[in-house]
Design brief:
Blueprint lengths: L14 E3 L2 E3 L10 H15 L1 H9 L3 H20 L13 H8 L6 H24 L2 H7 L2 H20 L4 H4 L1 H16 L1 H9 L1 H7 L4 H13 L17 H8 L1 H4 L4 H35 L9 H18 L11 H11 L9 H17 L1 H7 L3 H23 L3 H17 L1 H16 L23
Antiparallel strand pairs: 1-2
Helix pairs in contact: 1-18, 2-3, 3-13, 3-16, 3-18, 4-7, 4-15, 5-15, 5-16, 7-20, 7-21, 7-22, 9-10, 9-12, 9-20, 10-11, 15-17, 17-18, 21-22
């Protein structure tokens, strides 16, 4: 076992494979039981993608869970190929994709639209990763447009939950209780203080949103918004045949070429949103690398692009996925990193934590008791994910604006993005920035900044 011979300050051993660094469980990293057990339970969040596919594509549960399983298996590629993260959905972009796909007729047209979008996004990401142009492309986009896209994603996420016939109408009390508790546990300074002072609350906070999902399983039946879980024993039985025959290129054929061009604006909007996850990943891992000098963490955004871009390409062919394939599950990545910071005894390698967690979620998806436990409240889990993401998107979107003028433009872009889609939003955004800033199109308003530094003591 190579991980036992790790030299202080060096990377965990690996097999080189082009831009990738292959690491295998037990051999290159220690299998971390706490993270595996947590993943076993947190697969409930992965299952929350099922209601979206059922509603948007009319997909049977058995076919939808087959897609979730394929996506879950591809999550493993990140840590195996050298990306020390807990990957997840492109959550902020999910409402944007829903809005786009709903412009097509239900049935084959919608499936084709989803295939074309995900393949376009995957190829775009892989090209940017291979050419190492990712950061440069995002930097060229004016701040007002970036702010508008991120704000629009947050607005769309909230709108999906509260629209007529949406999840809130189905689970008003359960969602109110679950979201209220989630916002307190995740964003409240008061609870952050409790975690610092008390080990119990620190451990409770490290469970992420799992306690909230268990609470929803209990509350929903008590208030007659869902049935009590009918726990079944055995192994999950997905229908891969049904999925392949009716929801992939093998059954419905390739989309028309024009659909790929139509998907470009929404794919670009999704990329702007997900690039923020890449930056957030790097910041979190840099902090961990400073705390744990015994292991050098090599996070390469370009390598990450190749991996999650490749995942999107594969899913577009073998199981088109409404939630897409993103570079980061922020909530669980933070939980894993916080445990990693406790030292080598707690977690031998960051790859052990992130890898063991995703091995756990894959195991959970196979266990029928886990799947049947959370099936009645999957809509609540989805609403919870979208509302948390909406909160974060609003916060990040506002901070992306550099001036009040930027913020005004961003507000218009966000509204148009939700109502008319990404193509209209980009067109209006480019026109507004051009009309207002003219030759300073890329620089914007650099004098009247939105967030001015606080005056120092003694300043007049």
């Amino acid at each position: 076992m190579r991980w036992k011979n790790h030299q202080y300050g060096s990377e965990t051993s690996f097999y080189p494979l082009g831009p990738f660094k292959v690491r295998l469980p037990f051999f290159h990293y220690r299998f971390e039981l706490p993270d595996y057990l947590q993943g076993l339970l947190m697969c409930a969040v992965d299952l929350a993608a099922i209601p979206l596919m059922v509603e948007l594509l009319g997909m049977p549960f058995e076919a939808a869970i087959a897609i979730v399983m394929i996506n879950g298996f591809l999550y493993l590629l990140h840590h195996i190929l050298g990306d020390p993260v807990v990957p997840g959905w492109i959550t902020p972009a999910v409402p944007l994709l829903i809005t786009y796909v709903q412009t097509f007729d239900p049935g084959t047209d919608r499936v084709h639209a989803l295939i074309a979008f995900q393949l376009t996004l995957g190829l775009l990401v892989m090209v940017l990763g291979q050419t190492k142009l990712a950061a440069k492309v995002v930097m060229l986009i004016p701040s007002a447009i970036k702010s508008g896209v991120i704000l629009g994603a947050g607005l769309a996420a909230v709108a999906v939950v509260f629209k007529e016939g949406g999840r809130f109408e189905q689970f008003p009390i359960t969602i109110s209780v679950a979201v209220g508790l989630a916002f307190y546990l995740i964003f409240s300074p008061h609870f952050a203080g409790l975690k610092k002072r008390n080990q119990f609350w620190a451990a409770f906070g490290n469970l992420g949103i799992f306690p909230i999902i268990i609470l929803a399983v209990i509350v929903a039946p008590l208030v007659s918004e869902a049935s009590w879980p009918d726990i079944e024993w055995g192994i999950t039985s997905p229908s891969f045949a049904l999925m392949f025959n009716e929801y992939t290129v093998f059954g419905v054929g390739l989309p028309e070429f024009s659909m790929f061009f139509t998907a470009i604006p929404t794919a670009l909007a999704a990329y702007i949103v997900l690039f923020g996850d890449v930056l957030q990943t790097k910041a979190i891992l840099d902090e961990a690398d400073h705390v744990r000098p015994d292991e050098k963490i090599d996070y390469d955004p370009n390598r990450s692009h190749l991996i999650f871009g490749g995942r999107n390409v594969l899913m577009s062919i073998f199981g088109p996925d409404v939630v897409m394939c993103g570079p980061l599950w922020a909530a669980m990545h933070v939980v894993i990193v916080e445990r990693y910071k406790q030292g080598r005894a707690a977690m031998q390698s960051i790859f052990g934590g992130s890898g063991s967690f995703r091995w756990g979620t894959n195991t959970g998806l196979l266990l029928l008791p886990v799947v049947s436990l959370v099936q009645p409240i999957l809509g609540v889990a989805l609403a919870l994910t979208l509302l948390i993401q909406g909160f974060v998107s609003f916060r990040i979107g506002v901070m992306e604006a550099k001036s009040q003028t930027d913020l005004g433009i961003a507000g218009v872009i966000a509204a148009i993005l939700v109502i008319k889609g990404a193509a209209w939003a980009f067109a209006v955004g480019i026109l507004l920035v051009l009309l207002i800033y003219g030759k300073h199109f890329f620089k914007g308003d650099t004098e009247n900044t939105l967030f001015k530094p606080l005056p120092r003591k003694g300043d007049k």
